[in-house]
Amino acid sequence: MENETLVEGSSTGDFTKIYIAIIVVLITLVLFLIYRSRTVRRRSILLTGLCNSGKTVLFARLVHGQLIKTFTSMKENTGEYAINGSSLKIIDIPGHERVRDKFFDQYKPEAKAIVYVVDSTLIQEEIRDIAEYLYNILSCPDIANNKINVLILCNKRDISASKDWSTVKTMLERELTTLQITKSSQLEFVDPKIKKSSLLVDGETFQFGLMSSIKVDFLDCNATTTEDGSPNLKGLEKWLSNIV
Fold first, then answer.
1. Which domain holds residue 215?
2. Which residues, other chains included, contact 75 with Cβ-Cβ below 8 Å and sequence gap of 6+?
3. Which residue windows are transmembrane per the record (predicted)?
4. Is there a single domain that holds both residue 102 and residue 113?
5. 199-237 in b/e burial notation, b at 16+ Cβ within 10 A?
6. What is the dihedral of CA 208, 119, 136, 62, to 10 degrees?
7. Which of 50, 93, 167, 233 has minimal CB crowding within 10 Å?
8. pLDDT attached to residue 168
9. 7 with 51, same domain?
């Protein structure tokens, strides 16, 4: 009887180990499938920026390979961009301030990268609005936590009055420093316990190169025409090829 009891106890222990092993395998499989689905889903490039920055012209160049007349839209455009034997989903987000946040929030879960299009001919006049919208993107937890790459694309560089990417970068860093200080002061006034944004380390000016969670690149671009009658998208296309 004692031997039978020992055998039964041993069998029960073996079955328990098997059940635990099966549960561990199932949990691991579920976690892998969740990770895989999220990885597969993130294949979209979000084109965003203010109105009239040239996003839709850029979208047409990438997706349709041609120049088209555009107008301010309150809806997004979507299409496929073939590259390196694969493809990326390009999403042109409306630039109007009434709807851009809604569409950005809708599509950011599938974003693989963000192309922030700037009209380099109007950077001085629009620097405040450009910096504030960019600030909202860079301080978004979803973008930082998923380490989404951001490209600031200085468009309309074929126009003589435009500013190059280096000048735009300097102007944005200066404006973002001012904006961060202002927003931090406002938060402290409302509630001193509120955690400040991580965009700016106390006592330092903002620099894109110091951002730890988000890699920000700058490029010049001409989505319309250059002197030889063709768009200048080589830098952008190379950047996208590294994203695939």
1. 43-243
2. 94
3. 18-35
4. yes
5. bbeeeeebebeebeebebbbbbbbbbeeeeeebbbebbe
6. -90
7. 167
8. 98
9. no
Calculate the average pLDDT of the chain: 84
Q: What is the pTM of this model?
A: 0.79
Adjacent-strand bridge partners of 69: none
Same domain membership, residue 21 and residue 75: no
**Distance between CA atoms of residues 156 and 174, nearest Å:** 22
* Residue in this structure with the two tokens 């493809």, named with its chain if needed: 87
Which secondary-structure segment (H or E) carries 41? Answer: helix 2-41
Co-location of 1 and 101 in the same domain = no
Tens of pLDDT, residue by residue over 16-60, are: 878 888 888 889 888 877 665 555 467 899 999 999 999 999 999
Beta bridge partners of 220: 154
Among residues 53, 8, 19, 37, the alpha carbon closest in space to that of 222 is found at 53
Residues 77 and 110 in one domain: yes
Altogether, the residues listed in the chain come to a count of 244
Overall number of domains in the chain: 2
> Cβ(67)–Cβ(61) under 8 Å?
yes
* Encoded tokens for 233: 């998208």
What is the distance between the alpha carbons of residues 107 and 81, in angstroms, rounded to a whole number? Answer: 17
Q: Helix crossing, 123-138 with 165-190: angle to 10°?
A: 60
